[in-house]
Structure formats: C-alpha cells, structure tokens
Task: inverse folding
C-alpha cells in the first residue's frame, strides 16, 4: 500500500506539472538540474552496458566450449559489479538477472550486489524456488518483462522492492541477447528515490547534485 501510494502521488505530481496550459519557460537553474539528472542516468546506463558486455563475453566463451554458462564461472562479473558499485555511489545495487534455463547449474539466478548506508556491498539473497511461499517471481516484474518484450532499456518505479532489498527505488534495466538474439536476461541497476531527489531537487531547497 505504501509503494502504491508513493507511486500514485509521484505520477500525479508529474501529470500536474506537464498538463499546465502554459508551462513556464525553464530557468537556467532548472535546466542545469535536468542536465545533471540526465547525465547521471546516462552514467548509470553506461555501467549497465558494461555489465551487459561482460555477460555477453562470458556467454560467448561458454558457447565456444560447447557448454552452457555456469554460475560458478561468474567470478569476473562479480568483481565488475563490486568495482562499479563502489565507483558510482548513486547506485544502490547493480547486477544481472538471468532468464530461466540460461545457466547450466541454476534454473534461475540473480547475480546482484547491493549496498545500504550502514554497510559494504553484499550479494542479494532471494528465494528462487517456484514452490517456496516466498518465491521471488522476477519474470513478472516490469523491469524484467518490459525490456524482454520491447528489446529496449527500461526505467521502472518508484516502487518498494519488497521481495528484494525492501528499499524505495527506481530500477533501470537493459536486455541482454546472445549472438543469435536469444534473450539471456537483463542487466540493471537500482537508484533509491532519495538519491534521485538529491539530484533533481533545485538548489536552494536543501538538495545537492551528485553524478
């Protein structure tokens, strides 16, 4: 209910702003804020593209061996996720969510690192057994299904990630395909609502811009 309320109010505020009969001309300050926000989002998508490329590289190496990619072979990807998460503090999490049956040793898998204000990056732990009562059905999530169907990158949220980190976030994702166009899953990153507000809040209202 809290997630639905926050999402509804956010969308209503956006609609109120864009539906004005004569919207004001953006000031130099507001234009700068928009440019800063756009640059920050593009920087996050650049990280996601790096994750995409690393997964493609690992998948191609497995194909050349004539074997499926294994979870036990994702060490280089884990190292990359840690480096990028520590390098770009605006991200609350980053990783790869594999489509079912892509990995040879896991039916479903999420290779994801996330962080909070009071601790170092850690792997996301979720229940991926469909028979379990707390099964995390990520295939039904907008940030997974929308890029799978559209073939384009996606921004979902804001929402409360009840089955994952329990944070109030936006999730940015990009589909990952192999050389034959087979859908491998999505590479993505989380941004907390607080971090987005810190970027978009105009100066003079207590906000600070970060990239």
Result:
């Amino acid at each position: 209910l809290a997630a639905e309320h926050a999402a509804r109010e956010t969308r209503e505020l956006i609609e109120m702003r864009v539906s004005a009969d004569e919207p004001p001309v953006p000031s130099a300050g507001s234009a700068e804020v928009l440019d800063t926000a756009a640059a920050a989002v593009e920087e996050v998508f650049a990280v996601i593209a790096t994750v995409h490329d690393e997964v493609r590289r690992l998948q191609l190496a497995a194909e050349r061996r004539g074997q499926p990619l294994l979870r036990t072979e994702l060490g280089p990807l884990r190292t990359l996720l840690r480096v990028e998460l520590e390098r770009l503090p605006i991200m609350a999490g980053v990783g790869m969510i594999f489509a079912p049956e892509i990995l040879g040793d896991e039916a479903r898998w999420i290779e994801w690192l996330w962080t909070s204000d009071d601790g170092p990056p850690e792997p996301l732990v979720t229940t991926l057994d469909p028979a379990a009562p707390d099964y995390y059905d990520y295939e039904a999530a907008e940030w997974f299904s929308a890029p799978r169907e559209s073939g384009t990158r996606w921004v979902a949220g804001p929402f409360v990630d009840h089955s994952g980190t329990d944070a109030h976030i936006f999730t940015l994702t990009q589909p990952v395909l192999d050389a034959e166009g087979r859908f491998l899953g999505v590479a993505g990153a989380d941004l907390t609502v607080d971090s987005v507000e810190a970027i978009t809040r105009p100066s003079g209202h207590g906000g600070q811009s970060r990239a």
